[in-house]
Amino acid sequence: MQKIYQSTPVKKEDEGKVLEITYKPEAKYSLSAGQAISRFLNELKKGRLIGRKCNNCNRILVPPRVYCDICFRPTNEWVYVKDEGIVTTAVVSYITVDARKAEKEQVVGVIQLEDTNGAGIFHRINVYPKFVMNRKIFGKKVKAVWKEEEERVGDINDILYFQPVEELK
Amino acid sequence: MSFEKETKEVNLRTYKINMEAEEYSYTTGNLGEQFFLKIKNEGKLTAAYCDKCNVRFLPVRGFCILCGNEVKSLVYIDMEGVVESFTIAKISSKGEEFGKEKIIAYIKFPNTLGGLLHELKNVKIEELKIRMKVHPVFKEMKERIGSLTDISYFEPKA
Amino acid sequence: MKTNINFRNRVAIIGAGMTIFRRKLKDTPQELTYQATKMALESAGMDFKDVEACVIGSAPDAFDGVHMKGEHLSDGALAYLKPVKRVFVGGATGVFTAISAWWHVASGMFDVVVAVAEEKMSSAKPHPQAVFLHIWDPITEKPLNPNLIWIFAMEMHRYMHKYNIKKEDIALVSVKNKKNALDHPSASAAGKYTVEDVLNSEVLVYPVQRLDISPVTDGAAAIVLASEKVARRYTDSPVWIEGVGWNLDSTHWTSRELAYPLYLEYAGNMAYKMANIDNPRKQLDFAEVYDPFNYKELHHMEGLKLADKGKAPEMVREGITQRDGDLPICPSGGLLGVGNPIAAAGMMKVCELYWQLTYQADKRQVRIKNGYGLAQAWGDLMQVSTVIITRGG
């Protein structure tokens, strides 16, 4: 029969009563974006989406990559893609990154970009939560809404969000 | 490779990020907690004691790696330790100069396996010796929080 | 058709042990590892000196807040001065630890190996979910400040959309597993809940609600593996490892179809082929599929071909997956009921295979007909699965 050793649980109300040693980590990194993502970020600053095309599988990879992960070969050419696509999934978040309650709910999802042969991009979607809950936003066309040119810094947040092309009812 | 020839992006980008959690809070275990409370409340050093192997060891933990049995008790140890090895540090872990050198020593205690890492003070570098005897200097009672830093430093026995 | 590979040793599980799973345990990671290892050794009737090598499983170092966690935990596994290694494949680590220990023995290199998995998620402040931020792409995704639950919510909603699945049906999984866990002595989130309770719990990231998720937990779990000749000396009821499989999909999750876990189908096929199982729905007596979220149990049943695509909810509704049903799923109570200390949770499922197939599962015992049980875990950016199939009884 299964025998259990007694570990010592700390109940929520006893938090602070057991001795703990605390430490604040300070792990700071500077990541190099590489050639493909650097170009992608620099194009975002200009208000454009760019991808890399693999001539073997005919996919356009967005965000761009120097290699094709399916064909395992270098990608072939730079291709601008439309900042429009179809919503494949969407959710409404009521919490922040560290699990605290968010001040305002936020809709995020995956947008399959047009004419890319399957490239999905993860971003915010500007739509009422009810259209997520009734799933009306699924399969609908959305288009990127960009920050003003002078505010853009070359970051994924240069796109404010994606917005339905036709108003949802 | 072909990619590099076609795509010479001049403006290569880097991205600055902060990793990991805001803070870690480590529980110290049942024996560990007692060990730190003995430092805090009594200004005494203890070691875990395995009654099956009759050995004392540091750092304390709830099991004996020699016999594989559970360890449930602490014993007081002689606080006069022996420098097993030392190093002289000039820069902090963040690369900043200390100004004055810091001596970090690994200190063992009589009849006890393992030991403690701590700072050594009140000793001239030229007088530093492996196997020299040192003892702990504790912080004022009211400043202690139950941590190894309740020991301000070790110093040679006068 | 059985895979044509020759192993030096047949490998059996001859002991298992786990700590209680709780929101926070006072014991240190090493001590938790020790407790699980010790229990597994006692259950096998072995001393740690009989153990030749050790495999340690633990998820990101950033949870315990200790780098090189494998090395850190090895003393607790009583593995000092022994061949030790640590494995890590995200949430799928627990089962992969057992798989890795399997090839230690199957290869003929060792006769007795301990596999132990530990996780202490209470160390990271303010919440371990913040640590998960760093699994996203640091440049193209992380600046959007994603919460971990977002990806699972997106996968769940895609799954619901593609097969028109109702939240009520998904909620039944939480109800079942939390009820099953009432009989598990280590459980931290067991209870009698109704579908309404689940649907009325706090909405975190629609469609994910509080009771759709397993709680973050501290804990450890371990098994002892032995070659056939050693196993026969220690027990009359060894639990044989008959098949193992693992598979990893692309990290570019936005370009994948999220409604179906293809990588799991491949991992499952690998294990089924090795175990000579061609009709898992009939041949398996029960399965401990990975259930960190309730929809994942359904998703994984489909990937493992235990249900047709989009049809797992029907099986749950009809009671087939209950402990007394035709194909019990998560009779332990799973992660939803017992708790989710990442790597330890996967190992807990392998422990359950041992207890069920040696009739030590007490009130949790399912009916053993063919003697086959399966455990599975899943992780990373929704892209990896690990599968193990055992036979006993």
Please give a quick description of this structure.
The complex is a heterotrimer of chains A (169), B (158) and C (393). By secondary structure, chain B is mainly β.
What does this structure look like?
The complex is a heterotrimer of chains A (169), B (158) and C (393). With 169 residues, chain A is mainly beta. Chain A has one domain (34-164). Chain A has helices spanning 34-45, 129-133, and strands at residues 20-23, 27-32, 49-53, 60-61, 67-68, 73-74, 77-81, 84-95, 101-113, 120-124, 141-146, 159-164. In chain A, the strands form three sheets. A five-stranded antiparallel beta sheet of chain A has the order 10-9-8-11-12. The mean pLDDT of chain A is 93. Chain B is mainly β and 158 residues long. Chain B has one domain (29-156): Nucleic acid-binding proteins (OB fold (Dihydrolipoamide Acetyltransferase, E2P)), CATH 2.40.50.140. Chain B has two helices and ten strands. Chain B has helices at 2-6, 29-42, and strands at residues 14-19, 23-27, 46-50, 55-57, 73-76, 81-91, 97-108, 116-120, 133-138, 151-156. In chain B, the strands form two sheets. In chain B, strands 8-7-6-9-10 form a five-stranded antiparallel beta sheet, with no helix packed on it. In chain B, strands 4-3-5 form a three-stranded antiparallel beta sheet, with helices on one face. The longest helix of chain B is centred in the N-terminal third of the chain and has 14 residues, at 29-42. Chain C is of the alpha/beta class and 393 residues long. Helices cover 36% and strands 19% of the residues of chain C. In chain C, helix 4 packs across helix 15 (342-357) and helix 7 packs across helix 12. A nine-stranded mixed beta sheet of chain C has the order 3-2-4-8-1-9-12-11-10. Chain C has a single domain (11-125, 215-391), classed as 3-Layer(aba) Sandwich (Peroxisomal Thiolase, Chain A, domain 1). Classes of the chains: A mainly beta (169), B mainly beta (158), C alpha/beta (393). Chains in contact: A-B, A-C, B-C. At the A-C interface, helix 1, strand 8, strand 9, strand 10 and helix 2 of A face strand 1, helix 1, helix 6 and strand 6 of C.
Residues in helix, % of chain C: 25-40%
Q: What fraction of the residues of chain A are assigned to beta strands by DSSP?
A: 35-45%
CATH C-level category of chain C = Alpha Beta
E-strand count of chain C: 12
Written as H for each helix and E for each strand, in order along the chain, the element string of chain C is EHEHHEHEEHHHHEEEHEHHEHHHHEE
Q: What is the tally of helical segments of chain C?
A: 15
Instruction: Give the number of domains of chain C.
Output: 1
Beta-strand portion of chain C reads: 15-25%
Pick out the low-confidence regions of chain A: none
Q: Report the structural category of chain C.
A: alpha/beta
Radius of gyration of chain C: 19 Å
Could you tell me the mean pLDDT of chain A?
Answer: 93
Radius of gyration of chain A using CA atoms only: 22 Å
- Widest beta sheet: strand line-up of chain A: 10-9-8-11-12
Number of separate helices of chain A: 2
Q: In order across it, which strands form the biggest sheet of chain C?
A: 3-2-4-8-1-9-12-11-10
What would the CATH topology of chain C be?
Peroxisomal Thiolase, Chain A, domain 1
Helix-strand category of chain A: mainly beta
Question: How many angstroms does the end-to-end distance of chain C come to?
Answer: 23 Å
Largest interface: A-C, 55 and 64 residues
Global morphology of chain A: extended
